[in-house]
Amino acid sequence: MAEEKKALVERLFAGHRSALQAFFYRRFRRQADASDLAQEVYVRMLQVKDPDTIRDVRAYLYTVASNLAREHATREGRRGLTVGVDDCAALDELAEPIAFDAEIDAARQVKLLRETLRHLPPRWHAVVVMQYVHGLTHREIADRLGVSVSMVKKYLAQALARCRRRMVRVG
């Protein structure tokens, strides 16, 4: 059963990955988000307990994608996120899609990400936690840390770039 589910998800990934990335890119205009969100669709598909109960797998796939797009838009709206990092090198690095294999070991990836976050410089770690765990805006983070908004953006870009490099290199 698990092998059948894995094979189904691999076929879906092979057949719909670029279409899903395009779907997310049209909505968010950031390639990194599009790649990450498309990957999250497949993580969620792997969590389906009994894929045989799904009548139209393709429709289900896009329903999951639509729900994920809505969740992402809500999170970004709450955070007041607009990509405003002025460092072009950081933006280029963040825009590179992560190369994931078809076989996803979600627990291993989460463990690796947590380890990577623990090794960030304290300010970078604080900014990531305040934004992604507590949902604070750049302004709120800046006020709490006593730095400028542009410094918060810089810390965030540097932290995400380091996490992305480590995840690609080790994962």
Q: What proportion strand?
A: under 5%
CATH architecture assignment of the largest domain: Orthogonal Bundle
DSSP strand tally: 0
What is the CATH first-level class name of the largest domain?
Mainly Alpha
Structural class: mainly alpha
Major β-sheet profile? none
Write down the CATH topology of the largest domain.
Answer: Arc Repressor Mutant, subunit A
Please give the count of helices. Answer: 8
Count of domains: 2
Shape: elongated
State the distance separating the first and last CA atoms.
26 Å
Q: Can you say what the CATH homologous superfamily of the largest domain is?
A: Winged helix-like DNA-binding domain superfamily/Winged helix DNA-binding domain
Gyration radius, in Å: 17 Å
Percent helix: over 70%
| Unreliable runs | 81-87, 98-104
What is the typical, i.e. mean, pLDDT? 75
Order of helices and strands: HHHHHHHH
Verbal overview:
Helix content is 75%, strand content 0%. The protein folds into two domains: 1-79, Rna Polymerase Sigma Factor, Chain: A, CATH 1.10.1740; 82-171, Orthogonal Bundle (Arc Repressor Mutant, subunit A). It has helices at residues 2-28, 31-46, 57-79, 88-95, 106-118, 122-133, 138-145, 149-170. It has eight helices and no strands. It is mostly helical and 171 residues long.
Question: What order do the helices and strands come in, and which of them pair?
Answer:
Elements: H1 2-28, H2 31-46, H3 57-79, H4 88-95, H5 106-118, H6 122-133, H7 138-145, H8 149-170
Helix pairs in contact: 1-2, 1-3, 2-3, 4-8, 5-8, 6-8, 7-8
